[in-house]
Amino acid sequence: MRFKRSTWASALVLAVTAVLSGTDDAAPVSDDDFNSDVATLVFIPMEGTVGTYMNSLPLRESLEEAESLGDHAVAVLVFNSGGGMLSEIQEMSDVIEEHKGEIRIVAWIESAIGAAAMTAITCEEIYFMPEGHFGGCTGFYWNGCSYRIVSREELEQVLFMMERISERGGYDPLIMRKMQVNWFALSADIDADSVVQFHPDDSGEHIVNPDGEILTFNSQTAMRFGFAKGIAATEEELASLLGLTQWQRSDVSEQIMKQWRETIRAAERQVPEHIVKYMQALSGAGGATATGQRLLGEARSHLDALRDWRQRAQVVCRMSNITEEWLREQDQILRELAQQD
Asked: What angle do CA 81, 160, 108 make, to 5 degrees?
């Protein structure tokens, strides 16, 4: 799915701006007050299940809209997710990496667990909310019917993928590995300049996470071990940490994400309904009788609806095994039924 991009003037929606040094109050602004020479914070909600509600398609659209606001735009990926599909991580990481050269992208963590954390680590700047937590990246795969834990060769593939993604963000791969597996201790030495050196055993002065446990950072441990750039409870505090004394706020990407979530919610409700109604109609479709012809028309209508949903929310259809091949097979079945006397 790709959303229709609006024009620059209509796409820009500014809700909070003109936060000056020493001023806590934010003033409402209109489009006419937009200043292309002032930093624009574009907050992008990274919420819900990775793969469905958190997906590379609306993320790409959101970053493109952020870029359209000028050279001083900063995309803030606000993570609040318990994880989801491993298959979406590489896609989202690629989108973030692609746009890094065009716009400053930072992560702001309320909750990033599993696949959400594995995506966020692509960002070179990670900030935490005071209650934020990040990690717990044990992997599961969706096999079409249920989730199963990643093991053996699949686990090695995921570990290798996350080494590369950790390097994109500039993080020691040992951090993410300890968030994925529990078969080693992670320790660290911190020098006088606060430079952290991690060790895949207990030889360091500080034990980051003991053998037998999966690592999850909270805001304090993330700061202690140099993983987080800072802790911010509000947008104003985050802007200060980003070095911005004057800034304006756009919610254009929040609107994109809201539209995507509404589409996915509708798909999760309607796709199963169309599948059931299609199969019911199919069971009596065909032949020369009025009932058979009516049911054939109903089956065609539900199949067309499923084809439309595959275009709009492919990830939901994939979880219900609505593939292009399946759609073609059903088309052939309906054509054959239509030819029956």
From this structure: 30
